[in-house]
């Protein structure tokens, strides 16, 4: 089977490489960025993702996968085209489908045989139907194009593993032809396949992401109350987790969720519901709690120090979570902005997120090469991401090397007793 994939971001590239890895022998990844394509052909992985580069190189050498910017050649005689381009947030919260529409136009102009077009990108309910109508109206050749929904559930940092060992494959189809083709593609993965109609499949993706976001916001809300009433949110989460109706995952309180999915997908579904005359109150609450959570620690800190002006402030961890270089919607960003506005001397450290952070803050902050350097003589330190290096840091150095050993930990990286014993002033979340 010939498979083309539009878009070489997290979803497109990981999907393409994993399809080749499980044995598909004719996979082509398409991207408009020539330079990116050339680098990929040379074996360079454009994203920071554990294990991906090795699989890219291996499958390219085996001739199972190719990369191209020539969409015409890539789409003209394939069996299936997977669309995995971005659907970023518009200013009103709705999903921007411009990239999907651009690819659809290219498909309509190019395909020369009956083709199944599969949308993997997260798209509003009804998009498959709309795009199918658009492509069929604008087809250059006398062929049939059918759309199917196949949402993606991978997480950054564990994307390859998540794809090779997915919890489930969801396919939303309107015909046996589409179902059979998709079942054939996913057969080598040996994972449960859930078949629904297209609208339900599109909804499964939003409902799953929004539920996880809601779970985090709920725990953050509970954490804030724990602080007031003298409970410990980690003990509370542990006690809850033994109930398998609740589960143990995504109960970790912190300074809010970030990344390229939860913030965007909560807002998009909320927008979609309002647009359809219905208010999704739970999702709205998740969004509001998350917005407040991001600045909760720093607001608390500002009461304690009164004035950040001229103060050396260390920020440890910039990415929205560990094991990625992605800083999109990372809680570190509004916190750094807050500090810059108050004229603090901000010094940041992250094992891999520094380059991306420089694109936002340029030389308005300092970039340290180590935790040691970042906290040296600092009067306050904020922990924003639970990188292993930060969690395993020798905490006695906060005491020894900071001007004032004052640590605000947004990810509960350290034990309260250990910090107190060393004489560190320590504030964390919900405990
Ligand atoms: C998420 C979904 O997990 C994935 O299924 C979907 O396909 C894309 O969106 P991702 O954005 O890569 O994946 O990261 P995830 O690990 O889910 O974390 C998202 C955010 O939630 C991070 O900022 C993380 O720090 C935060 N989080 C997660 C918590 O604050 N507490 C938790 O218990 C779990």
TrEMBL record:
The active site is at 261 (nucleophile). Its EC number is 1.1.1.22. NAD(+) binds at residues 31, 36, 87, 122, 264, 328. Residues 314-416 form the UDP-glucose/GDP-mannose dehydrogenase C-terminal domain. Keywords: NAD, Oxidoreductase. It is an enzyme of class 1 (oxidoreductase). It catalyses: UDP-alpha-D-glucose + 2 NAD(+) + H2O = UDP-alpha-D-glucuronate + 2 NADH + 3 H(+). Pfam families: UDPG_MGDP_dh, UDPG_MGDP_dh_C, UDPG_MGDP_dh_N. GO terms for molecular function: NAD binding; UDP-glucose 6-dehydrogenase activity. GO terms for biological process: polysaccharide biosynthetic process; UDP-glucuronate biosynthetic process. Substrate binds at residues 205, 250-254, 258, 321. InterPro entries: 6-PGluconate_DH-like_C_sf, NAD(P)-bd_dom_sf, UDP-Glc/GDP-Man, UDP-Glc/GDP-Man_DH_C, UDP-Glc/GDP-Man_DH_C_sf, UDP-Glc/GDP-Man_DH_dimer, UDP-Glc/GDP-Man_DH_N, UDPglc_DH_bac. It comes from the Bacteria. The keyword Oxidoreductase applies. Pathway: Nucleotide-sugar biosynthesis; UDP-alpha-D-glucuronate biosynthesis; UDP-alpha-D-glucuronate from UDP-alpha-D-glucose: step 1/1. Belongs to the UDP-glucose/GDP-mannose dehydrogenase family. This is UDP-glucose 6-dehydrogenase.
